[in-house]
Specification:
By secondary structure, the chain is α/β, with parallel strands linked by helices. The protein contains eleven helices and eleven strands.
Length: about 300
Amino acid sequence: MNRRPIAMTCGDPAGIGPELIEAWLKDNQGRELKVVPIGNALWIKRLGVSGISVGPNDYQAHAGKPDEAGHRLALAAMERAAEGCINGEFSAVVTGPINKHGLASVGFSHPGQTEFFAKQWGGEPVMAFAGGKMTIALVTWHIPLREVADHLNAENIRRTILALVKLRQKLGDTNPRIAVCGLNPHAGENGILGKEDGALIQPIIEKLCREGLKITGPLPGDTAFHRHLKGEFDGVVAMYHDQGLGPLKTVDFAEAANLTLGLPFVRTSPDHGTAYELAGTQKADRRSLDSAMRLAEKLQG
């Protein structure tokens, strides 16, 4: 199949993203997979491949030393990649890690890249992680813990479960077995420790089971991930950010990748930050980027 290229954004040019992408491109020369790096002109020239430059032609990034021009360039790369998917130029986007605080300082109004691409493309985003030992989707993500219960509703819980089912199907499971965490300790202990598990989450699961899906829950968050690792489930839905990412990063810190599900186009990303302290040392672990690239290749339209 002659697929359109995958765009690779540089992320923060002072972080580890550009050097990881450079290493990946070097090790994957000659493959039929087409990728287009997007970043500053001097970096693109150094890569020695056909790419797209954004920002001032003479911008020079300094490893480990972020600056305002770099933040603007990272945003320009994201905008160019999003536009390229809309106009049919790219089939998917793999994004380098950004500095969210730095982007906010130059007018970026989104909590992260997930929300940015949802705004650009439309759709209802679901944050998910895969590529290592675990596959996890989050019902809520970048909100304060005290607000989580207020953001849970039947629609976003159902949407997250179905998005994870679809992901696992694309990854080869005919009828995925999905575990759904409860919100409260011990999944509410029959209402003693909270009402949301029985009143909100359980009816959604029961309805999906009647529709023929293999959904189990609500399960206590302190056991669901262990059961997933033991092979009982193909994926886990967590109610909030750290409920899912605490277990994931304990066992899959270097290998899992971030996916944005529920959008018209595929977007994946390494599951780590800019790591300024490692930038320029060539010591950063590339496995999460490798996972992000494998997933984008498998899931691309």
